[in-house]
Amino acid sequence: MRLTTRSRYALVAIADVALRGSHGPIALSTIGERHGISLSYLEMLFSALRRAGLVASTRGPGGGYSLGRSACDITVADIVLASEQGKNGQLAPDHDTMTAHQGAMTHALWQAFNQAVVDHLSSVTLADVVATQVAAAYVADGNLASAAAPQTPSSPTPPDRSHRPKGQLPRDGVPNSVFALGSAVRAR
Fold first, then answer.
1. What DSSP assignment string belongs to 106-171?
2. At what angle do helices 39-51 and 28-35 cross, to 10 degrees?
């Protein structure tokens, strides 16, 4: 299995759909804006994801992409395999620059490594990726964390500091300037 930038972008984009898709289809242009991915590149990725049945498209106003099946049923390995397939449905060959003789000594090592990667990516679902992002409150545009994550009880309201100049937020009882320090020393 090859892990390339293409598969990484595919995971980012489909995770965005999973995070925000509960309100309807997500337009590729909004995904591109949030993550700095070109629209033409996203169209290519989502074409492959759609062929694999991982996403479904909706045309027309308010259209875009939604998940083709539950996030619990999509693994990261599914996303990588779908994004790395060519138009013919075949994985791109994994070109090895070593000759057969050079690679013979370490072939078993790399084969075991690749299998460990496949096994790990097959054990992580898109729902796991989304849950991790929500728990970490990561959101590219800063709006989803409060909407997706459960609300936590707010901490006590801090003391009113509106009388202080903007940009100066010292701890209570600590002078915030040379002049305040001089006043505090004279008052003692």
1. THHHHHHHHHHHHHHHHH-BHHHHHHHHHHTT--TTSSHHHHHSPPPPPPPPPPP-TTSPTT--PP
2. 120
For the cut 80, the answer to whether the pLDDT of residue 154 exceeds it is no
Q: What is the pLDDT of residues 114-130, one digit of tens each?
A: 899 999 999 999 999 99
d(CA 56, CA 68): 5
Has this prediction a pTM greater than 0.70? no
DSSP 88: T
Residue with tokens 């994801």: 49
CB atoms inside a 10 Å sphere around CB 28: 22
Q: Which two tokens stand for residue 21?
A: 């898709």
- Chain segment 156-168, per-residue pLDDT in tens: 444 454 554 444 4
